[in-house]
Amino acid sequence: MRQTKSDLEQQISEDSVLIEKSVKIARSKKWRWLLLFLCLLSLSIGYVVSPYSPLVGGWHPLSPLSVTDKLGPFTSFKVKSAMLNKQQCQNALRGYVSFRPAVDKEYSERCHIRNRVVVDKLGLVDIGKIDTRCEVALRAAMWVEHGIQPAAQEFLGQSVSHIRTQGSYNCRTIAGSQRMSLHAQAKALDVAGFRLTDGRKIELSQHWQDNAGAAESKAIARFLHAVRDSACQWFVTVLGPDYNAAHKDHFHLQSSGWGTCR
Ligand SMILES: [Zn+2]
After folding, report:
1. Has residue 48 been placed in a domain?
2. How far is the CA of 260 from the centre of ligand 1 (A)?
3. Fewest Cβ atoms nearer than 10 Å: which of 72, 108, 203, 255?
């Protein structure tokens, strides 16, 4: 059957109405989704910034870093942010680390201590007197609180009361090389042993390997390996007895590098 002109016009008009309706529906759906997204976004922001927010510690993206906070998905980000700024770094140490801010030491471009702090205690742990950068002190504090003390409790049923370090700053080259060590800028810390609250001494040189095979010796060796592993969470490079003979009696903990953990 042949369509007349008026039939065609009517068909076009009906199609136009249909198209218009479809566009209206699509638009209203789009707006509904946008509205839902905005509602969810404001609820999420309110959830985080509200003083009644249940998010705390490492689960709260905006609260300042505290060393004793429970770890969460934002902890690592907060530690890195604190290390970018001298004041924020010192604020993060306060309340956990016994330290005094000190004037930077600028011996030369190769040898200096910037963002300098002098530290004598990390939590309840005596570490002698360490002249270092704030970021090294902050990494060490996180290691003590979230690595060393939990491992000491788990494997030895004790807390650590002393850490025997071999210092942080040392203007020297890497042993057997012409390259400067990161100790020359106090970006590293050497740790040789620990003392427990019951007075027992643990030395890497003696206790890394479980030579005796006795239960106590085994527990101490497991403690030291757990402590090395947890150091890798807070420092960028960790070298110990498993790395080479030059580190058979200490952990070398470094703020930068290629991420070696041995
Ligand atoms: Zn070292």
Report:
1. yes
2. 14
3. 108
Q: How many CB atoms lie within 10 A of CB 243?
A: 17
* Cα dist from 5 to 8, 11, 13, 19, 201, whole Å: 5, 10, 12, 21, 104
111 and 35, same structural domain?
A: no
Q: How far is the CA of 163 from the centre of ligand 1 (A)?
A: 15
Q: Is residue 260 part of a domain?
A: no
Output the CA 137–ligand 1 centroid distance in Å.
15
Same domain, 96 and 46: no
65 Cα–ligand 1 center, Å: 27
Domain total in the chain:
2
Both 144 and 199 in one domain: the answer is yes
Question: pLDDT tens digit string along 173-228?
Answer: 988 888 999 999 999 999 999 999 999 999 999 999 877 778 888 999 999 999 99
Domain-located, residue 63: no
**Distance between Cα 210 and ligand 1 center (Å):** 24
Residue 82 CA to ligand 1 centre (angstroms): 24
pLDDT digits (tens, 9 = 90+) for 80-124: 999 998 999 999 999 999 999 999 999 999 999 999 999 999 999
Owning domain of residue 41: 1-54
- Find the angle CA(238)-CA(131)-CA(79) to the nearest 5 degrees: 55
